[in-house]
């Protein structure tokens, strides 16, 4: 009997990505572009919350950077899921992949809470600053986990 993970691996697109010489690297390149957009914009806002570049108005910065973060995340998620389909059973069995997915879920929750509080209070409390620090370290760790996947 075919398991759900085997069914995912049997999808037309998953097979095409496995057999094509250029498709997987192209999707991986798009994954990296998404990550660059996400991490770059998130770090700008987090550093501002931590007290750097106080001359930049936080509300204007958020208005510019949040849509970039959302776009970057969507690109990373779609391309990540596409790569996942090629060897779904293998990835699910990798501890690092599971850690990466848990981290992403926790960081998304942190990002939503952080933005809500940053907008509600003009001044950033110690707790909000801690969330910003967790965000920088967390997303950097997700990048590290993603890169290490190829070597585990
Ligand atoms: C639902 C979301 C995501 C899924 C399902 C996913 C899945 C994957 C998969 C399957 C790979 C390929 C690993 C390999 O070929 O060995 C990968 C690579 C990678 N991922 Fe993700 N990913 C997601 C989101 C993210 C995010 C948000 C980040 C960073 C902020 C990230 C960082 C990376 C990095 C750095 C690589 C290595 C790229 C390379 O070596 O060229 N991923 N991801």
Please give a handful of descriptors for the protein shown:
elongated; binds protoporphyrin IX containing FE
Task: Characterize this entry briefly.
This protein has 152 residues and is mostly helical.
Descriptive report:
The chain is mostly helical. The protein has one domain (4-149). It has seven helices and no strands. It has helices spanning 4-9, 12-19, 23-49, 58-86, 88-92, 95-120, 126-149. Helix 3 (23-49) packs antiparallel against helix 4 (58-86), helix 3 packs antiparallel against helix 7 and helix 6 (95-120) runs antiparallel to helix 7. The protein is elongated and about 55 Å long. The two termini are 29 Å apart. The mean pLDDT is 95.
Helix-strand layout with pairing:
Elements: H1 4-9, H2 12-19, H3 23-49, H4 58-86, H5 88-92, H6 95-120, H7 126-149
N/C terminus separation: 29 Å
Radius of gyration from CA coordinates = 18 Å
State the secondary-structure class.
Answer: mainly alpha
> H/E series, N to C?
HHHHHHH
